[in-house]
Amino acid sequence: MQAGGPDSAAISEAPSSGSEESDCEPGPEADTDTALTEEWARELLIGSGVVGPQEVRVESRAGVAGALSRVLAVTVRYESDGERVALPLVVKLPPRDPFGRLFVAEAQFDTREILFYTELAPALNRLAEESLGPGQGLPIPKCVKAKLPDEIGGDSELVLEDVTSIGYDSADFAEGLTVERARAALYAAARLHALSLALREREGPLDQRFDFLFPCERAAAGYLRLVRRGLPQLEAFLRGRTDCIEEAAAVSALSARAPSLLGTLLRPAEPAPLAHADFWSGNLLFREKDGESECIALDWQMVSLGRPMDDVALLLLSSLTPEMRRAVGESLIEDYGDRLEAECKRLGATTSGVVVRKGLKPDWPRAALRALLLCAGSVDVALGDPRAEQRLLEAVKDLHAQGVLFLKPDTDA
Predict the structure, then answer these.
(1) Which residues contact 136 (CB under 8 A, 6 or more apart)?
(2) 14, 38, 52, 361 - which has most CB atoms within 10 Å?
(3) Residues with Cβ within 8 Å of residue 43, at least 6 apart in sequence
């Protein structure tokens, strides 16, 4: 039940839910990209405010070629004012494969993520600093350099700080998140949702100012591809088990009904905050500091207007073991709601916080079904891994028991 991949030196960019090509198997880069030269590094350093860098060199540490990008971990070493400095970075570049590059360009995945870091995140962080104080912005890596493509399919570049150098690391997907890490992730989501609600109250609907946000109609087309590929695979997996006959029949009926459900599943509800839209443990990094878990969110190619439960449900269904989800899922939703409402109050968006908090639990069936479709889109990644298979199986069983698999379009309700 995987959906995306991290922008860090803990590189394991798994298939992304944003692509119908998500069964692409990642592989290591043979060497660093030829564009990452000493001249490139010197320009980056000067652009970051380093005066007169000397003895500049670039060292490649790791790399992976995923469906949506090539992610390279590099260290830029230089000397400034007699001091030797090492700057660990993560560089995201378009795929080398022409078809993958065209897909990314047409869906604007690279453009959207670059504009998130260069336009949307700074606006949210300014609001956070004004209302909450320094260091209270989005829990994301610092953007060091960004370059938009000059033309469709052209080269883009996103350079981020490598937060693994300050103690963050990826979680073990098979083990599932601990309660503490799940709560830290949901608190990170609450910060995003609350800041975007507050900015909306100040400036109006966010898609009017930030027109690069992933539009519902484009998302619907991507989900339809996921449905057509993933649900038949999921049904076949269930039919291969003697204890899942009813669930297999429900998934079969869902496959036929799903195209008419997409509007219900994807339509934002007012007041509409931002949603990460691919919020699972593979797109998160964690560290423990002063006895507390901290979380940073990565991979913002699908950021969109949405509903908070979209991020919450995907995290709970994809990234917790079934036992953990059943034991603490409801309390984690309560914790998230408490944090969201408190953050909105601090940001001067009390009414929005109350409205959104009130709608969280009623929105679970819709958000959970959306999450299942995302997971089904990369079901082939789970198959063959006993623990991942079991997590997927138990999620389907639980959603079947809750009646989620029988959800109808709003117009049919």
Answers:
(1) 128, 129
(2) 14
(3) none
| CA dist 11 → 6, 72, 73, 121, 282 (Å) | 6, 8, 8, 23, 10
CA-CA distance, 346 to 343, in Å (whole number)?
A: 5
Burial 366-393 (b: 16+ CB within 10 A, else e): bbbbbbbbbbbbbbbbbeeeeebbebbb
Bond from prior residue into 232 cis (ω within 30 degrees of 0)? no
pTM: 0.90
Residues 192-238: pLDDT tens digits?
999 999 999 999 999 999 999 988 777 788 788 878 888 999 999 99
At 63 the three-state DSSP class reads: strand
Beta-bridged to residue 59, according to DSSP, are 75
pLDDT in tens, 280-335: 999 999 999 999 999 999 999 999 999 999 999 999 999 999 999 999 999 999 99
C-alpha–C-alpha distance, residues 193 and 368, integer Å = 18
Helix (H/G/I), strand (E/B), else coil: 375? helix
Rg over CA atoms, the chain: 21
Report the C-alpha gap between 314 and 331 in whole angstroms. 16
Query: Terminal CA-to-CA distance of the chain, rounded, Å?
Result: 29
Torsion of CA 212, 216, 221, 223, to 10 degrees: 110
CB 180 within 8 A of CB 190: no
DSSP 311-329: HHHHHHHHHS-HHHHHHHH
* Euclidean distance between CA atoms 174 and 92, whole angstroms: 26
Separation between Cα atoms, residue 271 and residue 268, nearest integer Å: 8
Distance CA 30, CA 80 (A): 31
Instruction: Tell me the sheet residues that pair with 96.
Output: none
- Say which amino acid occupies 182: A
Q: Which residue type does 64 have? A: V
State residue 4's pLDDT score. Answer: 42
Query: For residues 105 and 393, what is the distance between their CA atoms, to the nearest angstrom?
Result: 35
Confirm if 355 and 385 have CB atoms less than 8 A apart.
no
- Predicted pLDDT at 375: 86
Q: What's CA 99's distance to the chain center, in Å?
A: 23
With residue 144 as reference, give the H or E element that holds it.
strand 143-147
Burial of 412 (0-12, 13-18, 19+ CB in 10 A): exposed
Q: Are strands 27-28 and 292-297 parallel, antiparallel or unpaired?
A: unpaired
